[in-house]
Amino acid sequence: RDAYVNGRYVPHAQAAVHVEDRGFQFADGVYEVVCIRNGRLIDEDGHLDRLDRCLGELRIAWPCERRVMRLIMRRLIGRNGVRNGLIYLQVTRGTAARDFRFPAAARPTLVMTTRRAALAANARAGVRVITIPDIRWKRCDLKTVGLLAQVLGKQEAAERGAFEAWQVDEDGFVTEGTSSNAWILTADGALVTRPASHDILNGITRQSILRIAAAEGVRFEERPFDLDEAYAAREAFVSSATSFVTPVVRIDDRAVGDGTPGALGRRLLEAYVAHAEGAGAS
Ligand code: PLP
Q1: What is the pLDDT of residue 61?
Q2: Engineering a disulfide at 136: which of 72, 115, 149, 226 sits with its beta carbon 3.0 to 4.6 angstroms away?
Q3: Lowest mean per-residue pLDDT among 27-41, 122-136, 145-159
Q4: Mutational test site, ligand 1, from 181, 204, 207, 268, max ligand atoms within 8 Å of CB
Q5: Fold annotation for 122-277
């Protein structure tokens, strides 16, 4: 298995960046995770558009042309023979002597790795989530490699037997999971997810699900929901490039609905898989 590091394909075990890389020193970088199904990249354009926006907001230059980025992704997937799994790509501001200010002349670092993975079985069985305070910074719309709050949240979830932690803002409203967007189907039948803002990462999967919901005539509302509404929900699920639409069957110590994956979640998962294996992939 190879990794891509700054223009070279190298064996994964030897792939490395410099100790003064600003990604390592300052978390001064952004990343993307794109799902691969049947050898094809799902929602690639959406992911590259988001990468472009994040790089622009942080004033990090593209490490190569977008066309070349697409080529490298395909080459690495081909070299590693990945049919189903994911590709991880990270761009940092580059390597320079440690100084908070932007370096005058540093070339951005680009690394990519792949991993094989089938769609997790829990996407069908359903998962538990816990809720924790959202302790992140105020630009959660940027997909930066500064993920310490998410690391702590996911570890706490794992230690408490849950798949994910839903982060809750100071007003008591759910923002999102540590690595996924959060959804509920309310008691009166509306699909609800928090609107895109600086408070959440606008998931590419989230955007696809909203399009699918609109096409299928599902009533949805983009608005914040609080814990009381979540506990009373008929259904709940999380979405991300790697978990697709994964039903949530327990939030803290409360069963969601009858404690099994709900009909809408299952329907959206099937529709998303069809999208992933069809027109959305390239
Ligand atoms: N929210 C956060 C904080 C994430 O880290 C992720 C993905 O890792 C998502 C949402 C889901 O985004 P996407 O659907 O683009 O994978």
Answers
A1: 97
A2: 149
A3: 122-136
A4: 181
A5: D-amino Acid Aminotransferase; Chain A, domain 2 (3.20.10)
The domain 2-116 is classified under which CATH number: 1.10.375.10, 3.40.640.10, 3.30.470.10, 3.40.50.11540?
3.30.470.10
pLDDT at res. 190: 97
Nearest 5°: CA angle at 56, between 54 and 62? 95
* CA separation for the pair 83, 116 (Å, rounded): 8
Residue 143 bears catalytic tag: yes
Catalytic residue among 40, 143, 206, 250: 143
ipTM: 0.99
CA 59 to chain centre: 22
7: left (phi over 0), alpha (psi -120 to 50) or beta: left
pLDDT band for position 119 (cuts 50, 70, 90) = confident
What atom in ligand 1 is closest to the CA of residue 207?
A: 14
Partnered with residue 12 across adjacent β-strands are none
Using CA atoms, how far apart are residues 108 and 97, in angstroms rounded to an integer?
14
Atom of ligand 1 nearest to the CA of 140: 3
